[in-house]
């Protein structure tokens, strides 16, 4: 048995959905522990593409149980759409998909408030997906949030809705009773929430107890992270981050498991770098290389469709991610996007003023003012999409993988050269291959 956390090592969009889908058959359960519908995991099966926002990517593998943990924030209407899409595509969720009764709920006023904030001229734009995720976590921390379990008690729901809505309207009604137009809005929300609650009821349970019982009975778990390390609320490039713990430690709090029940951590990195939204991005390429990476990698957001900012691989940020997550091994995805480049660059340090910085800086004003120090490496003209072993990779591609391994101080046990499972190369003698044998 092996219980493994799989997390993103960059700014999200590293290809975690494909890696989860590839590894899922070796596990009994896939559990998601953070984020909300702002996280889009894309999985391809044959000619069909599945864009999943709440539900773990493992749901496409029959007989594997999938759990939305208490650390996730849920938009009930959007989740019901997702459920409808999957069932319409012939994916059975019965007795294998569960939602934590402790998970917090995203309300329509949260989405409206976040949209107004992003569109304001205050200069505080973060570049969020405007899905109400941040406000839902804010309500949770101020103890005015609404959990899934609260949807099933009308009295509790009405009182908590009043407080939750007031939090983003200046707090003037906090602790009081709504009246007039405000009262009508609360009544409308109560009705909508009750309808959603009834539709979701077959999937709602105490997932902490369910997961604990299954682990004690010998089930193996793949803990699915959302977003990436550099977007973690504590350890990312604050304040341009998400609102939850997207690092490996979030698996414990977001699913209610003990650290002693986790056997390892696997990171996922793109062979280059991308970022969506605002915030410092030292290796960003705004010219021809960036455009080429975007078009070859189809770098457009799964949730929003926004074009992603693209740049060279940042080994400073990646090494930082590997260290704070305690990565045992890593996957390197989209290596094939680099096919055809004459030359590639890898950021090995930052230059700030007269100093060379080799560790990821905490200060956003320093990171914003850094310029990358690059190591140039040879590109390759060969098509890597048909490679099925590490040895089959072109020499310069293999050198590129090895260089990144050395720089981030973490073994790369999986290399992806295409969107299908066949395009994933697992090193036969590696930590990952040993885990997969233990999980079966």
Could you explain the architecture of this structure?
The longest helix has 21 residues, at 180-200. The chain is α/β, with parallel strands linked by helices and 440 residues long. It is built from 13 helices and 20 strands. The radius of gyration is 22 Å and the shape is globular. A 10-stranded mixed β-sheet has the order 9-7-5-2-10-1-11-15-19-20, with helices on both faces. A hairpin with a 2-residue loop joins strand 3 and strand 4.
Main attributes?
single chain, 440 residues, alpha/beta, 10-stranded mixed sheet, 4-stranded mixed sheet, 13 helices, globular
Task: Break the fold down into its secondary structure elements and pairings.
Elements: E1 4-8, H1 16-23, E2 29-32, E3 41-45, E4 48-52, E5 65-68, E6 73-74, H2 76-88, E7 97-100, E8 104-105, H3 108-119, H4 133-141, H5 154-167, H6 180-200, E9 204-205, H7 207-216, E10 221-224, H8 250-255, E11 264-270, E12 273-275, H9 288-297, E13 309-311, E14 313-314, H10 315-325, E15 329-333, E16 343-352, E17 355-357, H11 364-368, E18 371-378, H12 395-408, E19 412-416, E20 424-426, H13 431-439
Parallel strand pairs: 1-10, 1-11, 2-5, 2-10, 5-7, 6-8, 7-9, 11-15, 14-16, 15-19
Antiparallel strand pairs: 3-4, 12-13, 16-17, 16-18, 19-20
Helix pairs in contact: 3-4, 5-6
């Amino acid at each position: 048995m092996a219980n493994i956390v799989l997390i993103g090592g960059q700014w999200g969009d590293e290809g975690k959905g494909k890696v989860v889908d590839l590894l899922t058959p070796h596990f009994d359960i896939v559990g998601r522990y953070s984020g909300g519908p702002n996280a889009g995991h894309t999985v391809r099966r044959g000619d069909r593409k599945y864009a999943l926002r709440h539900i773990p990517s493992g749901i496409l593998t029959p007989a594997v149980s999938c759990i939305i943990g208490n650390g996730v924030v849920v938009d009930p209407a959007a989740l019901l759409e997702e459920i409808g899409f999957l069932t319409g595509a012939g994916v059975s969720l019965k007795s294998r998909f569960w939602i934590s009764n402790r998970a917090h709920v995203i309300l329509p006023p949260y989405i409206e408030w976040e949209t107004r904030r992003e569109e304001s001229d205050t200069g505080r734009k973060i570049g969020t997906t405007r899905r109400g995720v941040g406000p839902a976590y804010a309500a949770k921390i101020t103890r005015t949030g609404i959990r899934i379990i609260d949807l099933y008690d009308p009295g509790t729901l009405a009182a908590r809705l009043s407080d939750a809505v007031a939090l983003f309207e200046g707090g003037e009604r906090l602790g009081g009773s709504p009246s007039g137009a405000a009262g009508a809005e609360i009544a409308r929300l109560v009705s909508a929430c009750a309808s959603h609650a009834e539709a979701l009821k077959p999937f709602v349970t105490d997932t902490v107890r369910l997961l604990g019982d299954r682990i004690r009975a010998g089930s193996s778990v793949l803990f699915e992270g959302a977003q990436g390390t550099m977007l973690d609320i504590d350890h990312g490039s604050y304040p341009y981050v998400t609102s939850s713990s997207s690092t490996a430690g979030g698996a414990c709090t977001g699913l209610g498991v003990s650290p002693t029940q986790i056997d390892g951590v696997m990171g996922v990195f793109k062979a280059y770098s991308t970022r969506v939204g605002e915030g410092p991005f030292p290796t960003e390429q705004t010219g021809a290389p960036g455009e080429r990476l975007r078009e070859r990698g189809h770098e457009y957001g799964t949730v929003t469709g926004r074009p992603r900012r693209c740049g060279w691989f940042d080994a400073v940020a990646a090494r930082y991610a590997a260290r704070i997550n305690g990565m045992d091994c890593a996957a390197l995805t989209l290596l094939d996007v680099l096919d055809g480049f004459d030359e590639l660059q890898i950021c090995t340090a930052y230059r700030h003023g007269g100093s060379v910085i080799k560790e990821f800086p905490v200060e956003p004003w320093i990171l914003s003012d850094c310029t990358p120090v690059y190591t140039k490496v040879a590109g390759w003209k060969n098509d890597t999409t048909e490679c099925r072993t590490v040895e089959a990779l072109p020499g310069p591609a293999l050198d590129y993988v090895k260089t990144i391994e050395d720089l981030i101080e973490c073994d790369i046990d999986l290399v992806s050269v295409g969107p299908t499972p066949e395009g994933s190369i697992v090193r036969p003698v590696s930590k990952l291959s040993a885990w997969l044998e233990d999980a079966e």
